[in-house]
Amino acid sequence: MADRTQKPPAPVQAPRADVDAFLGKLAKMPAVRAAGQRGRLLFALDATASREATWDRACQIQGEMFRETEALGGLDVQMLYYRGFDEFRASGWLPDSNALIGQMTAVRCLAGKTQIARVLRHASDEAKAARVGALVFVGDCVEEESDALGALAGELGLRGVPVFAFQEGHDAHAEHVLRQVSRLSGGAWCRFDASSASQLRDLLAAVAVYAAGGRKALANYSAQRKGDVLLLAKQLE
After folding, report:
1. Is 206 in contact with 27 (CB distance < 8 Å)?
2. 3-state secondary structure the chain
3. pLDDT tens readout for residues 114-152
4. 221 domain-assigned
5. Is the pTM of this model over 0.85?
6. Does 95 reside within a domain?
7. What count of other Cβ atoms lies within 10 Å of the Cβ of residue 130?
């Protein structure tokens, strides 16, 4: 008799390939700020119910990434999140990692639809006011029209704001849309899950270092790290 035991679906792309593609894209990014200026980075989070199980751990990881930028002349971070029924929040620009962590840990997940379009529109508005080095988005699903998100991502690309999308889990539709958003904005996409927490921490830190100090700072950071981020040093040579 044939074995009818169902096997879990294989990942759409191997994690190693995801990371290599992400690092390759990040290594080719141009400088993001002039000397003497503080970097600015938008940090957007999906706080809907599907992410509740990993929220606290993710907050710790995401807070740690900014500690790597403290010696680079400064990084201002604005935290964005959506949850519940049409709730969308944006903090002020935070110059201190402790302030960011405090705001993140105060957020509780609530059931609701994704609001990625609002994140992208907000990023465009902020970029009109002053230079924004990058937008980081962390989420697990997409429930919005892909063409509309693509158009907004293209506008961010024209304004020089790359979107670095970190996808939790293996939702195929979310991957398809977030890859497009990243590509059209000039950014990059990468997957993570509960088993790759240290990898996510290092990759997020690499984006923060890039936003704070540009390619030179990223090259120095890569040379000091082991594992995935170390690959950036060779790609930047």
Report:
1. no
2. CCCCCCCCCCCCCCHHHHHHHHHHHHHCCCCCCCCCCCEEEEEEEECEHHHHHHHHHHHHHHHHHHHHHCCCCCEEEEEEEEECCCEEEECCCECCHHHHHHHHHCCCCECCCCCHHHHHHHHHHHHHHCCCCEEEEEECCCCCCHHHHHHHHHHHHHCCCCEEEEEECCCHHHHHHHHHHHHHHCCEEEEECHHHHHHHHHHHHHHHHHHHHHHHHHHHHHHHCCHHHHHHHHHHC
3. 999 999 999 999 999 998 888 999 999 999 999 999 999
4. yes
5. no
6. yes
7. 10
Domain tally for the chain? 1
Domain that includes residue 78, residue range: 38-236
Give domain status of residue 178, yes or no: yes
Q: State the amino acid at position 163 in one-letter form.
A: V
